[in-house]
Amino acid sequence: MARKLSEEIKIDPSAIHQNFKELSIKLFCCRYWILEEWECDDLKVPFWRIYHNSVGDSTIRFKNSTIPLNNENILIIPPNTSFSSQLKRNFNFQDESIIGRKFIETDDLATLAAHGKADHFFTHFSLGYPLDFVTNTIYVIKPDETIGHLLKEIKRACVTDLVTNMKESLRVKQLIAACLLNLPDEIWDSGNIDHRILKSIKFIEGNFRRKITNEQLADTANMAVNSFARLFKMSTKITTQQYILKSRVEAGCHLMHHSNKSLDEISYECGFSDRHHFSKIFKKTMKVNPSDYKKLLKMVNGISE
């Protein structure tokens, strides 16, 4: 009898199949800065961003709107959304400038505000396909008690350099999920994603460091090359090779944020033929040279060259 009962036990007793949406939050960085200048034009990048400032007069310009960054607002910015930033009141965007440093324990918000500076919390992340291809816009939400508590704890972890440990990494992902839950449901409605495109993207994500041809990708999808290329672009709004380059640039950003590797080493590890090619694609995508991007990271973390 005992054997018969054990044979009838099922892992999931329900006969209804549940097809959950895949969600993988890939963190690139999470930082807390002090800004003296933040005058930038066209801050379009291929990953998501969350911004929150407590003090200061910084603003975001998106299309015909000016959005304040203050304690009452959290900004959620999808990939490839073009916008500009401003901290000074009188500014010519022909002279872009970022001046700032890491927020440290002795800094005081009231003192910053009195000197015309702003604190600036941000995190960069990706959600993968198709969630990285939502409409280009900027969402403004009001922090509730849960989000407010998460922000407070994560900012403290950034200040004390503990934000990359397991507990704080989970907290950052919890903040991202809490913010995304405030977005309108319709932005996630991507319809029925063709399983062949999903399969090819998973292949890219695992192999983008080496040369990938359309023939290889079409083979993974069991399709003719031309038919596959059309379906891929229709589904993602970019070509296969553009998607591969996007993946390589994201990997380069991740290495610059989380390693001390040289640009030559990063170029090689991300699948570029040389540093010149990496710099060309990086600048086209990020609107800044990788050497300048790396210097900025050192500056805001208080590390001198």
From TrEMBL:
| Molecular function GO labels | DNA-binding transcription factor activity; sequence-specific DNA binding
Q: Which residues cross the membrane?
A: none
Which residues, if any, are the signal sequence? none
For this protein, the record's InterPro entries field holds: Homeodomain-like_sf, HTH_AraC, HTH_AraC-typ_CS, Tscrpt_reg_AraC-type_HTH
Q: Which UniProt keywords apply?
A: DNA-binding, Transcription, Transcription regulation
- Annotated Pfam families: HTH_18
Superkingdom in the source lineage: Bacteria
Presence of keyword DNA-binding? yes
What is the protein's name according to its record? Helix-turn-helix protein
Gene source species: Pedobacter cryoconitis
